[in-house]
Amino acid sequence: MKNKSNITLLSTSLFFALINAPQASDTPVQEYRQADHFLTGWAALSSSTRTSGPSSGHFIEGLKGVKTPFVDYQVIPGWSALLNNADGTYLAMPDNGFGAKSNSSDFVLGYYIIQPNFKTQSDGTTQPGKIKNQKFIPFNDSKGFLNNKKGIDFKITADYRFYPSINDNKILESEFPVDSRIKKNRWLTGFDFDVESAARATDGALWVGEEFGPYLLKFDEATGTLLQEPIPHPSLKSPFNQEVMRGKAVATLGASKGFESLATNSDGTRLYVVPEAAPIATSLQPIPGDERVLEIYEFNPKTSSYTGRSFKYQKDGDSIKNQVVIGDMINLGKDRFVLIERDSQSGVNAVIKRLYTIELSDINTKGILNKKLLLDLLKINDPLDIGGPLPRVAPQLFNLPFDSIENVVVL
To answer: Is 158 helix (H, G, I), strand (E, B) or coil?
Structure first.
């Protein structure tokens, strides 16, 4: 067999590892060597985990007994990007906070360094291993790129006296003063950007894909400092794009359908940028009228520019009113990648939670990348019963029926 790899997957704050198509020499669990995959461990971060920081949640209402705001705390609503640090820890980046530009100006953007302790053996329960947060690095605009009257220029939360919100594309200030730490350090918030994906290029910088532009952002990984002007896409513009909000352009992309995935090639010299869905503008759709097909855009991080090269990828689901989105993409070596496809359903209503592999050189007669199913995340082999007796799941199976599955990492 070829191209065998250990794969780690993350959904919201749940971590699980699996082995795909192991050889007898790949694992000591010899009796399962013929399986194409099986669960090897899982861990989860408690939903009650908090981080000391500016009070958050002023613009949301708590559910299931949770009270808001979270005084002197930042919450962790889930992880939208995950990178392997190759030392047992991971870079884990939440998105814009509470799900919208209007309610997330008090949520500080950045990333955590986390260390999972995987549960790797059955104990007859569904209790996962635990995850430890080691530290948090806030993203910031301390160099002042976002208010220098150049490039993508706009007022960020740190420039306001009171936390801003938005209503019908009009920015309104609330009654809640912006925390002094956000103002002093020019920390970025979920009102400023909706960060969804991350990748490391050869220069060591951390590149982040976001959805409000959509823009590509370049940060110093050690300090979280924005290193240059945000880079807009040549044709994709969300409803919260700065030009659209100022009435100087028309949205060509649906809300929250920006750069959900960002992957490097095998040597880190190229980035591949993947929006969640196809443009709403028919003229920009790779195959006009077919919402299943989207483009994977190639970007040169050295020149900070798009190369003009792209690839067509066809999602599952319907050609019209397609509800399937891309959750993540990562390189498996050479020009081979794995992508997450998911619907927005959860629990018993979940249907599409899948991993597919592609090779950029493998294109069909319609010019679309051929894809192969790697794993159905609703039917994960668990012969060791690590997951335990899950409701409505057959014995020796594990599943991941979460609405938003957003990360895959190669070990």
So the answer is: helix
In angstroms, the CA 407 to CA 292 distance is 21
Look up tokens 């290029």; give the residue.
201
Contact 136, 112 (CB under 8 A): yes
Check the CA dihedral 388-389-391-397 and report its sign: positive
Q: What is the pLDDT of residues 339-375, one digit of tens each?
A: 999 999 999 999 999 999 999 999 999 999 999 999 9
The closest of 93, 91, 80, 182 to 141, measured between CA atoms, is 182
pLDDT single digits (tens) 17-73: 666 644 444 444 445 555 678 888 999 999 889 999 999 999 999 888 899 999 999
| 236: Cβ contacts below 8 Å, ≥ 6 apart | 213, 214, 252, 253, 258, 275, 279, 284
Element (H, E) at 40: strand 37-44
CA 70 to the chain's CA centroid: 24
Q: Which residues pair with 262 in a beta bridge?
A: 273
Model pTM score: 0.93
Give tens-digit pLDDT for 79-135: 999 999 999 999 999 999 999 999 999 999 999 999 999 999 999 999 999 999 999
For residue 277, give both structure tokens. Answer: 């869905």
Give the angle subtended at the CA of 185 by the CAs of 179 and 191, to the nearest 5°: 60
Strand partners, 99: none
Burial of residue 188 (number of CB atoms within 10 Å: 0-12, 13-18, 19+):
buried
**Collapsing DSSP states into helix, strand and coil, what is residue 185?**
helix
What is d(CA 29, CA 33) in angstroms, rounded to the nearest whole number? 7
Q: What gap in Å lies between CA 93 and CA 194, rounded to an integer?
A: 11
Say whether the peptide bond before residue 301 is cis (omega within 30 degrees of 0).
no
Q: Other CB atoms closer than 10 Å to residue 37's CB: what's the count?
A: 19
Closest CA to 90 of 394, 330, 396: 330
Contact 187/139 with Cβ under 8 angstroms?
yes
Rounded CA-CA distance 312/291 in Å is 12
DSSP secondary structure letter of residue 388: -
Whole-Å CA distances, 385 to 30, 40, 107, 128, 395: 16, 10, 38, 12, 8
Going by C-alpha positions, the residue among 182, 238, 239 that lies closest to residue 209 is 238
